[in-house]
Design a protein that fits this description.
The protein is built from 3 helices and 6 strands. By secondary structure, the chain is an alpha+beta fold. It folds into 2 domains: about 1-40, N-terminal domain of TfIIb, CATH 2.20.25; about 40-135, GMP Synthetase, Chain A, domain 3 (2-Layer Sandwich), CATH 3.30.300.20. The radius of gyration is 17 Å and the shape is elongated. The relative contact order is 0.15. InterPro entries: KH_dom-like_a/b, OsmC/Ohr_fam, OsmC/Ohrsf. This is OsmC family protein. It comes from Methylobacter tundripaludum (strain ATCC BAA-1195 / DSM 17260 / SV96).
Length: about 140
């Protein structure tokens, strides 16, 4: 896996992936940015949320659960020092479906957290990561 990050101007960069996708990263005006892109640390949280969400949906679908939506809200706390690393990350899964059992969603979240999600497992070595979920019946 390889990515390239190219400086554009000020504190704006364009990240390009080996799979052919690009994203703009920028900082706030008080750091020399124009606020026209995501912050790198936000992208890190998106990666954790995306990786975990992918696992949860795949596990539930393979278990023949009838899901219609999965939203993962990721919140984080950072230390008040430089570097301002994450001290806590919390993933809250909101899974919507027909006849979903909470035990199936709980199992999927646990499997992602403990076995499959490379991003959260890697980060959990240095950051406290917690998970919870809710099930919405349609």
């Amino acid at each position: 896996m390889q990515v390239t990050v190219k400086w554009v101007d000020g504190v704006m960069f364009v990240g390009e992936t080996g799979s052919g996708h690009a994203v703009v990263m920028d900082g706030p005006p008080d750091h020399g940015g124009r606020n026209i892109g995501m912050r790198p640390m936000e992208m890190l949280l998106l990666g954790v949320g995306g990786c975990s969400s992918f696992d949860v949906v795949q596990i539930l679908q393979k278990g023949r659960n009838n899901i219609v939506n999965c939203v993962t809200e990721v919140t984080a706390e950072r230390v008040d020092a430089i570097p301002s690393v994450f001290s806590k990350i919390h993933l809250h899964f909101i899974v919507t479906g027909h006849d979903l059992k909470a035990s199936a969603v709980e199992r999927a979240v646990k499997l992602s957290a403990e076995k499959y999600c490379s991003a959260s497992i890697m980060l959990s070595k240095v950051v406290e990561i917690t998970h919870d979920f809710e099930v919405i019946e349609v």
